[in-house]
């Protein structure tokens, strides 16, 4: 089932999400719905707070980015094959490498894209959809997508990484999103 994505201004996007246990109600169905919602909205990742669930759960499919790169562009992300993975109860162990800019957007902040600097690598400790413990290091664009989605479960949005002047310049666009004055081709839930 395709779920509505909560828009900028909704309080759930600013909460630090809670860890869950394997008996979380209808978890498999929730994960399936998150994949379906993400693909229906042309996303490469989606976090549970974006569907109004304040839990530490997100899904990432960076394979679709890597697979669509031209051969010469793939050299920009050495060692990054892309992933399609579920992250539950994720916690960052460390980040590393040089920070680099990349133009990011967010399904909860439609029609806004800005360059954000993030580290090249991220190591996470988490459990997969079968609650098997994992600790992995990710790099390149995959690390970036993971860090973006991880921010969501910590109540952080990509615009929080922008300089104050840039954020002030976006204020009217952000206000329009909060008021529901933006049209998108996917289901959204706007703050009341």
Automatic annotation (TrEMBL):
InterPro entries: Peptide_deformylase (IPR023635), Peptide_deformylase_sf (IPR036821). It comes from Chitinophaga jiangningensis. Removes the formyl group from the N-terminal Met of newly synthesized proteins. Requires at least a dipeptide for an efficient rate of reaction. N-terminal L-methionine is a prerequisite for activity but the enzyme has broad specificity at other positions. Signal peptide: none annotated. This is Peptide deformylase. Its EC number is 3.5.1.88. Pfam families: Pep_deformylase. Binds 1 Fe(2+) ion. HAMAP family: Pep_deformylase (MF_00163). SUPFAM superfamilies: Peptide deformylase (SSF56420). Belongs to the polypeptide deformylase family. CDD domains: Pep_deformylase. One of its GO terms (molecular function) is peptide deformylase activity. One of its GO terms (biological process) is translation. It is an enzyme of class 3 (hydrolase). It catalyses: N-terminal N-formyl-L-methionyl-[peptide] + H2O = N-terminal L-methionyl-[peptide] + formate. Fe cation binds at residues 106, 148, 152. The keyword Hydrolase applies. The active site is at 149.
């Amino acid at each position: 089932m395709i779920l509505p994505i909560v828009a900028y201004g909704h309080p759930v996007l600013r909460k630090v999400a809670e860890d869950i246990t394997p008996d979380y109600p209808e978890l498999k169905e929730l994960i399936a719905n998150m994949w379906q919602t993400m693909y229906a909205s042309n996303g490469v990742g989606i976090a549970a707070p974006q569907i109004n669930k304040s839990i530490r759960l997100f899904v990432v499919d960076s394979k679709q980015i890597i697979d669509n790169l031209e051969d010469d562009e793939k050299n920009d992300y050495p060692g990054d094959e892309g992933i399609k993975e579920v992250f539950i109860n994720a916690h960052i162990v460390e980040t590393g490498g040089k920070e680099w800019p990349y133009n990011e957007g967010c399904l909860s902040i439609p029609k806004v894209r800005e360059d954000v600097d993030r580290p090249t690598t991220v190591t996470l400790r988490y459990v997969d959809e079968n609650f098997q413990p994992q600790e992995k290091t990710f790099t390149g664009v995959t690390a970036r997508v993971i860090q973006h989605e991880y921010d969501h479960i910590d109540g952080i949005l990509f615009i929080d990484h922008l300089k104050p002047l840039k954020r002030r310049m976006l204020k009217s666009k952000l206000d329009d999103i909060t008021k529901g004055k933006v049209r998108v081709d996917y289901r959204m839930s706007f703050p009341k």
